[in-house]
Amino acid sequence: MTPTVSIIIATYNRSQVLRHAIESVRNSHFADWEIIVVGDACTDDTAVCVAAFGDPRIRFVNLPERCGDQSGPNNHGVALSRGRYVAFLNHDDFYLPDHLATCVAELDAGGTDFVSVPCVITRLKTGSPEGRPVSFTLEAVPYNGVYDPLAIYYASAWVFRRELAERVGPWRAPKEMFVVPSQDWLFRAWRSGAKLKFLPSVGVVVVSAGTRAGSYVSRDNPEHEFLAQWFRDDPNYREKILEEAAINEAAKFLLVRRHSKLFWLVRCALARPIYALLLMAGIHPGSATMMLNYGGRGGFVRHLRKRTGANERSA
């Protein structure tokens, strides 16, 4: 039977976090899905991890040669998918239980090609309230619900119609652009005239490997172990996460408002003409900043691979 949603999980030698991502899907209120886990030439026990679920809705495919980023595995997963809708889930991240149901209901209502939701971003820290080793902030919240090419919209928060994937085409490799492949794909979707909708419902918890040096080398994953246990034990975890995220965002806003007015005025004045020119040329406007910060095409992805140890085999 054809599933409603095909969820693509690209992975590379991170079975210790992948199992939590898969379990978060299995805990969803919406159950009509398939998961296609695509290994980027994995050499660890990822196949064993996937098989251990014993769930016929989940399958694993391992690419014979490594791509070194998500574009290849995600494109392969989309090609194998069968659902009316397509979603991505980074192997580090968690779906909240109502995420799929909320997004599918919006797409089923019609008039929308693509939906995305805000994300809670997790940062590792010490000395946090209640002994929590992590803190939370909100991201991927568009101003007035309208797509902004300079904002970041995490692929784990996307659900979209299969026809949109066919219209936009595959994810491009990092070497072809200055921005990351996910944001390039969304930018092309927007330019194609796709109807994008951003829902005011936090649905994904993001645990970024890029914020912790050596995360691909070490099998240690304290954030994931803590979060998975907390989600199982505390029925009020969502309210606590959102409360802390709201407080952190308010504090950040006040800091910018009090100390950075001149900086933001100058930045806006200088950046606006460059932004307009890049849009007219069909170039993602984030390319200018990425080029300055990380060098040539694919620079940011190379930076992440070096920092996380994704070029090395996991211990």
Can you describe this structure?
The protein is of the alpha/beta class and 315 residues long. Helix content is 41%, strand content 16%. It has 11 helices and 11 strands. A 7-stranded mixed β-sheet has the order 3-2-1-4-9-6-10, sandwiched between helices. A 4-stranded mixed β-sheet has the order 5-11-7-8. The radius of gyration is 19 Å and the shape is globular. The mean pLDDT is 86.
CATH fold type: Spore Coat Polysaccharide Biosynthesis Protein SpsA, Chain A
Instruction: State the total count of DSSP E strands.
Output: 11
Distance between the termini: 40 Å
**Which parts are unreliable, with pLDDT below 50 for 5 consecutive residues or more?**
none
Mean pLDDT: 86
CATH superfamily: Spore Coat Polysaccharide Biosynthesis Protein SpsA, Chain A
The rounded Rg comes to: 19 Å
Write the layout of secondary structure elements.
Layout: E1 5-11, H1 15-26, E2 33-39, H2 46-51, E3 58-62, H3 71-80, E4 85-88, E5 94-95, H4 99-108, E6 114-116, E7 119-124, E8 134-139, E9 158-161, H5 162-168, H6 181-191, E10 196-198, E11 204-207, H7 222-233, H8 237-259, H9 261-280, H10 287-294, H11 299-308
Parallel strand pairs: 1-2, 1-4, 2-3, 6-10, 7-11
Antiparallel strand pairs: 4-9, 5-11, 6-9, 7-8
